[in-house]
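Structural prep section.
Before we set up the soaks we want a predicted structure of the protein with fe (ii) ion in place, mainly to decide which crystallisation condition to try first. Input record follows.
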Amino acid sequence: MTARELTAAEKTGLITLAGRLTGPEHPLIDSPDWLGAAREATSLLPRQLLGTLRAFRHDPGADGVLLLRNLPVTAADPLPPTPGVPNSVERVPTTAAAVIVSVMLQLGEVIAFRNEKSGALVQNVVPVPGREESQSNAGSVLLELHVENAFHDNRPDYVGLLCMREDPTGDAKLCTSSIRRALPLLSEATRRVLAEPRFLTEPPPSFGSLGGVRPAHPVLQGDLDDPNVLVDFAATHPLDERAKAAMAELREAFVETMAAHRLRVGDLAVVDNRVAVHGRTSFTPSYDGEDRWLERVYAHLDNRRSRVDRLGGGAVLN
Ligand SMILES: O=C(O)CCC(=O)C(=O)O
Ligand SMILES: [Fe+2]
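Run finished without errors. Recording the tokens verbatim:
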């Protein structure tokens, strides 16, 4: 997998960059002003990092994941306790928020979805009491492999997950698999079935009627020698028995070729949401402020393609 550890000097550079995006003159992440300032600041990322991001955008590699390490998540002050409430988001710019947004802005336009975490651009991925069993990032049971917001026509092209606090038990691992690794394990017949519109993907309940009834879609899309994948093993339903068997074979191939990442503080995993699926192992939260905490930011490549979903031309999609 493509992994790069930032040097101490690069880390210091990022803290300086984040300084331009935090403080009293920057009260709110979710404002055109702040996003504009972040868009200007992103060109000041360390030069080597800019090169790494540009290369990943060109080709996400066999794993479809870029792992950046040693990013700053605070300037100097200690990290606050892990939030433990549902739909927790970051509103006020912090070092971590400035860093993840600046990096994601090199891959594309940063976006969010109105019906998910109130449309906030920087979202907290934390376990929430009472949600243990849910197939969402608030849960702590195994989170099935999925393409992020697979049901949505303008789903993100990239998902960034920045580790703020490690899981103290060490059990929680981000799992990723790519269709580039899984494809060779699939039979020709299975590939053909997966390339046909024999699958339906449900929107999560939070999207309500806006999700609507979605048309049937293929799981493998584009050039079948190097396809994109569109599947969520908790939300995609095969429409017939052969499609069901093909999906099961695909899941097995993903599990066989899966990478499990025990994220450390300052690790940013960027998942290419066309080529890779992701999920998480189960773990046991203690809800004492010390639980695992990631920040999540989405980006997509074509702002014009999504304009129809972005009311007023902002960063939030319906
Ligand atoms: O907790 C994780 O490692 C991944 C959660 C996830 O799928 C997400 O936040 O999109
Ligand atoms: Fe996810």
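Observations: The chain has one domain: 2-317.
Flagged for discussion at group meeting.
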